[in-house]
Every structure is written in C-alpha cells, then in structure tokens.
DNA sequence: GTTCCACTTCAAGACGACTTGAGGTCAAGG
DNA sequence: CCTTGACCTCAAGTCGTCTTGAAGTGGAAC
C-alpha cells in the first residue's frame, strides 16, 4: 500500500504517518522508489497506537510501551491505576459542576457545596492534571482526489 | 497584597497571575506605584479557576464561563455531560489496559479481548479526545527569598 | 521519452498555556 | 539622596503534536 491508502484506511493524514515514523512508532515495509510501502500490519499497529493514546500515553511513552520486547505490561498497569484516580476525580468534578449548575444561589459564593469545593482547592490545589478538549479535528490538505 | 503574596498563597507563579490577567480572568484591585495590589477575593477567584480548569475548561472558555452575568450554568451542565462520556470511555479503557497487562498471551496479537479493542478502534477511531499527562509542574524562578 | 502528479524532504508555522530574559521603574530603608 | 530589589513590560522561547509550504523525485500512463 501507498501512504495515502494507509491514511485513508486509518483515518489519519499522511503527514501524521510520517511524523509517527519519525518518532519511531511505525515503519514502512520498504520503499517503491521514494514512496513508502506498507502492508496490513501497520493498520493494526496504528489502531493499537490510537487506543493507548486515548488512554493518555504520549507518543514518546508509546515508543517505550511498544518497545522491542513487546507491550510493556508494567506501563499498562501503572496507567490503569492512574486512570482509576483520574476517573474518581472527574466523577467528583462532574458532580460538583452539576450541583453548581443547579444551585439556585445567584452567585457561586452563596452556594455552600461550591464553597466547600473552593475551600478544598484552596487547601491543596489540583494543578497536577489537565484535560484539554477535543480541538475539533481540523482535518485538511494532502488528500487523494 | 503584592503579587508575590498571592502567588505564594495560591501556589502559582507570579508569571501565571499576570498571564491570567492578560486573559481577563483576574484583575488587581489597583496599583501601588507599578505594583499590582490584590485582596483576598482573588484567591477565591483563582480557586474557582483551578477547579473548572481541572474539569477541562480552557482559559478562553473560563473567560466566558465567568462572564459578567456570573457563572454560565449551561456551560457547566454541558461540561458535566461531557465528563460523563469521558468517564465511561476512560473506565472501558482502564479495563482494557488491565486485561492486556494480565493477558498471558506472549503478544497482544494473540489476546482475543485486545483484538476486539483494536477492531473497534479500526472501525471507528477515537481520536476525538486526548488526555495529556501531568508534565511535572516545572516550577522555578521568580521567587521571593 | 515526455508528462503528470502523488509522493518525497526539510524547515517553519500553529496552538495553548505558560516561562524566561532583558531592560526599566519606583517605594522603602539606610 | 541613593541604593536596593521586588516589581514592571514586552518579546521571545518552550513543549508536544502535528500541519503547511516550497522545492524536488520518479513510477506509470500516454
């Protein structure tokens, strides 16, 4: 397969595939002239990358995770535990947001449960984890007609 | 209070406070010469910002969220629902990671449940949400002796 | 054998949230 | 009055994940 085929089937722009190669995450089976050639296996690899990425691994970490000796199970376990903590935090946050949204007090200053949340934040700030948003997948350019 | 006092009490570097001001999220009560002066209220404001930030709002969104007319409850509700979806996804992911870590198959290719996960990713890639990691809070410079 | 155009490389740009550095200001203490 | 140094501003740099653009290459169709 040419890179455009992989791009289409994986739903990723070719530029991303080149970038992943540069980072050592994927590799073409060879070249046809200049052109990278791939077989089906790369699709599975990309799927795997997609999954662990959505679990919060950075590309560098994924490089280590998928190192020579197969999947690093320790990293997986560690990340699972991290996810557990994250999930707990997010659930609490979600409840607080709902409560704040429903609270009839005209300003958040008058809502006792929100007060408590703020006090907790004042005591030991979170700041250890951020959750950026989707960013809307601005896909464009470099497309096979 | 001088900015260094706020910084210390909020656990944020002064540069961040200036940046938040530039983004319209906080404001000093006035100036003493050049120096920004703050009262206690800014600490509560910063705590609020910290909370909603950890719930996934970007600084720009926080600007809108905390607009003139108080907290925007619609935004809060929408974000709570988003968090719900996120939590569900993360929980599934966590289970998959645990399973993959525990799976005795020598390579992930031979683990049926991981296979299924990959197939799902192949069919409809996630790619709609990423979860960057802590980044280690590289705090330094600009400190009161 | 010439043309076409999907591919190639490499450098630079984009975005969000800050940080860093150079050079300047000014209130307070000696 | 002079020095000190915490503060100030503004421009530029950083980090991760890509995207974009310019300029070049070469397989395949004609």
Automatic annotation (TrEMBL), chains A, B:
SMART domains: HTH_MERR
Residue ranges occupied by any HTH merR-type domain in the UniProt entry: 1-68
Lineage top rank: taxon: Bacteria
InterPro entries given in the database record: DNA-bd_dom_put_sf, MerR-type_HTH_dom, MerR_fam
SUPFAM superfamilies registered for this protein in UniProt: Putative DNA-binding domain
Listed transmembrane segments: none
Keywords: DNA-binding
PROSITE patterns per record: HTH_MERR_2 (PS50937)
Pfam family, one: MerR_1
CDD domains, per the entry: HTH_MerR-like_sg6
Protein name: Helix-turn-helix domain-containing protein
Origin species: Cryptosporangium japonicum
Lineage: Bacteria, Bacillati, Actinomycetota, Actinomycetes, Cryptosporangiales
């Amino acid at each position: 397969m040419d890179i455009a085929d992989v791009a289409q089937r994986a739903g990723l722009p070719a530029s991303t595939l080149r970038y992943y190669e540069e980072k050592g995450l994927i590799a073409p089976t060879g070249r046809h002239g200049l052109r990278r050639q791939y077989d089906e296996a790369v699709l599975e690899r990309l799927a795997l990358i997609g999954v662990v990425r959505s679990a919060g691994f950075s590309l560098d970490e994924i490089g280590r995770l998928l190192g020579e000796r197969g999947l690093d199970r320790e990293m997986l376990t560690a990340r699972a535990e991290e996810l557990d903590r994250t999930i707990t935090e997010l659930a609490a946050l979600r409840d607080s947001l709902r409560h704040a949204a429903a609270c009839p007090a005209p300003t958040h200053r008058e809502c006792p449960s929100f007060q408590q949340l703020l006090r907790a934040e004042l005591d030991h700030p979170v700041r250890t984890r951020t959750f950026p948003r989707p960013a809307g997948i601005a896909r464009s350019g470099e497309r096979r007609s």
